[in-house]
Amino acid sequence: MKKIFLSILSLSIVFLFLTGCKDNNAPTSEQKSNKSSVFISIKKAEDTKVFSKQSLSINYMQVEVFDTLNNSDESYVDESYIDKTPINIKAFTKVASEWTVSLNNLQRNKYYIFVVTAFSSNDADVSKLIFKGIKTHEIVEGINTLEINLSQTANADTIENLPSASSIVTTTLVNGSIELSFNISNPYEEALNWEIRNDGVSTISDNFSSNSGVTSTLNTAIKLNYLETSSNSYLLLLSTEDATVSYHFSIDIDDNDEVDITVEKAPVITKLIVSVLGNELSLTPELDTVADAYAWEIVENLGSAINIDDTTAQNITLSPYSETSEFKIKLTVTATSGAFSYRIYHVFGNYSSDENNNVVIPPISTESLNIKKTQQTTSYDYLGDIDATVKDDGFYEKGLTPSYAKDSSTKIVTDNVTTLMWQDDNDTTLDWSRADQYCTDSSIGGFNDWRLPSMSELDSLKTYYPLDPVSSSHDVLIDGIFEVRSSFKYWSSFQYQAYQNTDRAWYVDFRMGNQGDGNVNRSGTYRVRCVRGTLTKPTFTKDIAQGIVTDSLNNLEWQDNGAFVAETWKEAMERCESLSLGEVGKDGGWRLPNVNELMSIVNRQ
């Protein structure tokens, strides 16, 4: 079984910028050319243990150097470096416990972005990446010290590894009885207990032919007879040793004996961010959807005594925290419906303080999926008829469930999956230049970093199912939480990349779901929806021998071999389902990707 551990690691990285001889009468060639050498030394890089008690020993480390667009702010990290080629890549060498590397010919009085990556493999195998740190720094004459905090990235825990239920439905049988059915997914094939409780109490319900059970298989289909003739609400609980996820469902029977069921899944903890200041430990959870209540509990104290300041707060502080602290902590989150989930984390570690006794702890990266579900739940054949045997997106239902929260006072909608914040108080049309300036000048909600969204960011808002719950005249492919719901085209920040059409920019159409570069040039007018925040981009690596490209962020593998010909949708699906390549794929087999997965590999640069 996969255990969850949060480990605390402090890495001190010292950069020494050497400008050579100080004798002004005998300058070095580097001084003449205003260039400097950089010597990087990692003074402390402790091995530690995290998820599954697997050692995260660093076996290879490298630094990449990128130019930056910003040359005046050391706290600024220019995200465009992701799409650029580094101007220098150099591997560290290790002597005893110290890692060092030297870089030459960096220009003084210029800012660079330094990206340090550490791997458990003996080379830069992205699948073995365990720590990463990014820092913008100016090269100046003399000796400078720069610290980069390395964030843990390997063996990340994701909500895909939690137990889950799907297809919770009721069926009226020929004899008039009501059947409840659902499917249980048990990723680790560990002992999983399921039970159905009456709503609002902890007692198991007697209103079904069976009310509990245990399974250790990957997928389990459950069918039960509903013994009541009236409407009632219940909780379905799925529990393993370290986690529980519940679903609130209501069975409604009207006067004509028509049966309906509504289901709400509990919020789930997707990430726990750990930070330390002095003798206090801060824990900040991130969830896949909004919770109504939080409850923290020390399950077991394995080290020196430690206390929680407020057990019902969303973010908590524990103290006193020291090197001998080690404990298991349980966080339960509850929705307004009463559906709840909890996870148990084992927090431990050792660390060294800096001269001010401050310890900066990198967040524990979950590297979870940021691709949303299309929310298609029914499968169709190539003629458009319902067919449960067809392995389309209605069969697989891959991705994260879209989730949004809205601040009614500022009219800002926050995407809980991508963490992007969106404007929702403007329905005007502008040309591209004015749209770009409009977002730059905006201060909605007191924020001054609004901007025109990228194509990928606009794409992340599109929703395909269910049908538009707001518009009665036509479907708008955006969540119903948005009040401004124009079906028209919205400008993106991406300018058309073609020498013969440099006066165009791209848009996304929320009526058809398509994109374009504009039938009119940038002087034409489309609508504007400003955004703030950063959309995490996937990282790709290729196994040339097998012809497989791996997206480590979204845990997807892509076929990249063979000669392809035009196929019908049915032929393409059958070919993917029968494909034998590599180790059969990360989730058990190859399949045709859904539209959101395909959009994730589009590179418009």
TrEMBL record:
Signal peptide range in chain numbering: 1-26
UniProt-listed Pfam families: Lcl_C
Species the sequence originates in: uncultured Sulfurovum sp
Domain Lcl C-terminal: 412-532, 547-604
Protein name in the entry: Lcl C-terminal domain-containing protein
Entries under PANTHER family matching the protein: LIPOPROTEIN
Keywords: Signal
